[in-house]
């Protein structure tokens, strides 16, 4: 019975796809958003000839691709005889995948359009032994054809937003069968787990694995840059340095012991950042000159690859890329050292992480520079509140550990 339903579904989606594609292309062309990777999504890419031992990971966009990084590296290390394929759904996701996995993955491409001839062409060329999809991408045709071809298919790091949940729940009769095609559904939290079960996921194969994004390690290197309570403004973008410096100048009058480590996301902005620091009238220096906070009030980090280990010396951190449309950067590099984080409102690349952190005082998302200043002031003036925020960081981080090894163990059972 369900084979007939999927056959009808496949026929309808194919016809609609053919009819609508020209209009979608024209509309996106007018908006300057072309159908990037559409040939690959149709299955028209050179056969990579990967053999019959292939592990495939899919992350639709930037956040999911980043979350998979340590897992993919661990997979390559644990299963050296297997080829690794990474797919994405968006142009930005593809760019990040190419940048991060060019030396790790054996093949990187786009996920196919969810219509039968595209999925079949894709699966025939990739020939995956197992497929793992990050978060909760439910593609009915892809799931059905994987089941039909006896390819184990898993959802890992699964989560589901309230709006998506309500939509899926309305069509529960349909999605219950789709979810049944998966060999396992592993979620970030008990909350996500229960929502997926409510829309029809099999309870026996649906369980909590915790969150892959929390697989962040402390640096083995110790850093000492001098005395004072150090505020880190990490991975700042244009316009954010000005916000942070203005706030720092104001807070410095109330808290003379505070220092600022200012870290522009791109080193080509260093000279501009230094100009801003100079205009404060405070003493400033450069990391490349080995300047320290015994002598300087502001230090600009102008070296590559050092930000992660610097979070160990901060009192708390502002995470940049959040007062523009960048979508934020990884707050866990600070939280792993039990140091609270603050972000502006643009956090779409790490929305799930901030959702977890902001349930406690481990992380705070502010709406404006004024609110940012007020919250920094609270962390600096209220010692009990600050100590609890640090404890919350440790508690939240420890609660989320173990996701990577969970997936590796499942792969060992499958392969």
Structure write-up:
It is a single chain. The protein has 415 residues and is of the alpha/beta class. The chain has two domains: 32-211 and 401-414, Rossmann fold, CATH 3.40.50.11720; 229-399, Glycogen Phosphorylase B (Rossmann fold), CATH 3.40.50. Helix content is 45%, strand content 15%. It has 18 helices and 14 strands. It has helices at residues 2-30, 38-41, 62-67, 69-78, 91-101, 116-126, 140-148, 162-170, 172-179, 190-198, 240-254, 270-279, 307-310, 332-335, 351-357, 369-381, 383-399, 403-414, and strands at residues 54-58, 83-88, 107-110, 130-134, 153-158, 184-187, 206-208, 229-236, 258-264, 284-286, 298-300, 316-319, 341-343, 363-365. Strands 3-2-1-4-5-6-7 form a seven-stranded parallel sheet, sandwiched between helices. Strands 10-11-9-8-12-13-14 form a seven-stranded parallel sheet, with helices on both faces. Helix 6 packs across helix 7 (140-148) and helix 11 (240-254) runs parallel beside helix 16 (369-381). It is elongated. The two termini are 31 Å apart. The model has no long low-confidence stretch (mean pLDDT 92).
What's the arrangement of secondary structure elements?
Layout: H1 2-30, H2 38-41, E1 54-58, H3 62-67, H4 69-78, E2 83-88, H5 91-101, E3 107-110, H6 116-126, E4 130-134, H7 140-148, E5 153-158, H8 162-170, H9 172-179, E6 184-187, H10 190-198, E7 206-208, E8 229-236, H11 240-254, E9 258-264, H12 270-279, E10 284-286, E11 298-300, H13 307-310, E12 316-319, H14 332-335, E13 341-343, H15 351-357, E14 363-365, H16 369-381, H17 383-399, H18 403-414
Parallel strand pairs: 1-2, 1-4, 2-3, 4-5, 5-6, 6-7, 8-9, 8-12, 9-11, 10-11, 12-13, 13-14
């Amino acid at each position: 019975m369900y084979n007939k339903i999927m056959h009808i579904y496949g026929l309808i989606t194919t016809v609609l796809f053919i009819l609508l594609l020209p209009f979608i292309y024209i509309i996106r062309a007018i908006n300057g958003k072309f159908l990037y990777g559409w040939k690959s999504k149709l299955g028209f890419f050179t056969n990579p000839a990967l053999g019959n031992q292939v592990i495939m990971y899919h992350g639709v966009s930037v956040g999911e691709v980043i979350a998979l990084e340590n897992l993919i590296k661990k997979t390559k290390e644990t299963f050296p005889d297997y080829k690794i394929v990474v797919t994405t759904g968006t142009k930005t996701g593809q760019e990040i995948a190419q940048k991060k996995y060019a030396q790790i993955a054996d093949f990187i491409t786009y996920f196919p359009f969810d219509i039968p001839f595209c999925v079949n062409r894709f699966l025939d060329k990739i020939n995956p032994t197992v497929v793992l999809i990050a978060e909760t991408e439910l593609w009915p045709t892809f799931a059905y054809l994987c089941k039909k071809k006896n390819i184990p298919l898993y959802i890992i790091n699964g989560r589901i937003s309230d709006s998506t949940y309500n939509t899926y729940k309305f069509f529960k009769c349909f999605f219950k069968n789709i979810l049944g095609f998966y060999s396992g559904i592993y979620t970030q939290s008990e909350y996500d787990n229960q929502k997926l079960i409510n829309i029809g996921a099999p309870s026996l194969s649906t369980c909590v694995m915790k969150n892959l994004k929390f697989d962040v390690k402390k640096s083995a290197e110790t850093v000492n840059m001098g005395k004072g309570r150090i505020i880190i403004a990490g991975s700042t973008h244009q316009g954010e340095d000005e916000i942070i410096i203005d706030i720092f100048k104001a807070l410095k009058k109330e808290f003379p012991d505070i220092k600022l480590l200012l870290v522009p996301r791109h080193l080509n902005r260093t000279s501009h950042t230094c100009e801003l620091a100079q205009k404060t009238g405070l003493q400033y220096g450069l990391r490349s000159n080995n300047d320290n906070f015994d002598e300087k009030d502001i230090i600009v980090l102008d070296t590559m690859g050092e930000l992660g280990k610097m979070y160990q010396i901060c009192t708390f951190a502002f995470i940049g890329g959040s007062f523009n449309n960048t979508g934020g950067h990884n707050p866990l590099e600070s939280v792993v050292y039990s140091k609270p984080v603050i972000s502006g409102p643009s956090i779409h690349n790490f929305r799930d992480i901030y959702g977890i952190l902001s349930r406690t005082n481990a992380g705070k998302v502010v709406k404006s520079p004024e609110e940012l200043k007020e919250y920094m002031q609270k962390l600096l003036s209220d010692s009990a509140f600050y100590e609890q925020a640090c404890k919350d960081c440790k508690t939240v981080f420890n609660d989320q550990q173990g996701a990577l090894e969970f997936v590796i163990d499942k792969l060992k059972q499958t392969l």
